[in-house]
Design goal:
203 residues; alpha/beta; Rossmann fold; six-stranded mixed β-sheet; 6 strands; globular
Length: 203
């Protein structure tokens, strides 16, 4: 049995300003840092983690570091856990992206699995790299409890891949929201919680 905890990063400046984050280095806001600290305090009171893995983008790393400090568990970062690349739309507001590439933007908003932002990734490409890496992570920690800190779209696609549902059916993942999944020895997944935000009460 493996417990897999999937944590979205805290609020970033890109989130606050309504900009596509993609592979950019947009940092956490003050609220995002408070969310990360609250998450770390809560996870330190839970059963011990076996490992922490995070996207190598600053907003994910800076969310994972307080958990590492609170638990003493090693943190490993990887570009395989980055957000879906939106290519040339990176850093643009949603309105700016829509004005420059109306057809591509519309395809993204309707969650077309084949939609590719100019210079970016499709849903399938993002899901494949994230799933391959997480499969490796789970193989390293049989019987463990693993935390993955990453990004909203990527985590949605990963959950869809693990549970086998159409990624066009959206699962909400708020900043520092936690998806809690359990893989049984027989290979069956159980959903313990989706977008758990109880640890953010008062933040």
């Amino acid at each position: 049995m493996i417990d897999l905890l999937l944590l979205r990063h805290g609020q970033s400046e890109g989130n606050e300003l309504g900009r596509f984050g993609g592979h950019s280095a947009t940092p956490l806001t003050a609220l995002g840092r408070a969310q990360a600290e609250a998450t770390a305090r809560a996870l330190a009171l839970e059963p011990p983690l076996s490992a922490i893995y995070a996207s190598d983008l600053p907003r994910a790393v800076d969310t994972a570091l307080p958990v590492q400090a609170a638990t003493g568990v090693r943190l490993t970062t990887s570009p395989a856990l980055r957000e879906r690349s939106v290519g040339d739309m990176t850093g643009l507001t949603f309105r700016e992206a829509e004005e420059r590439w109306p057809a591509e933007y519309a395809a993204m908003m309707r969650r077309d699995p084949t939609a590719r932002p100019p210079g970016g990734e499709t849903y399938g490409e993002c899901a494949a790299r994230a799933r391959a890496y997480v499969d490796e992570v789970m193989a390293r920690h049989p019987g463990g409890r693993v935390l993955v800190v990453a990004h909203g779209v990527m985590l949605h696609l990963l959950v869809a891949s693990l549970l086998g549902f159409d990624p066009r059916h959206h699962i909400r993942t708020d900043n520092c929201g936690l998806h809690r999944l359990r893989l049984a020895a027989e290979g069956h997944w159980s959903v313990l919680a989706l977008n758990d935000r109880a640890h953010l009460i008062g933040v």
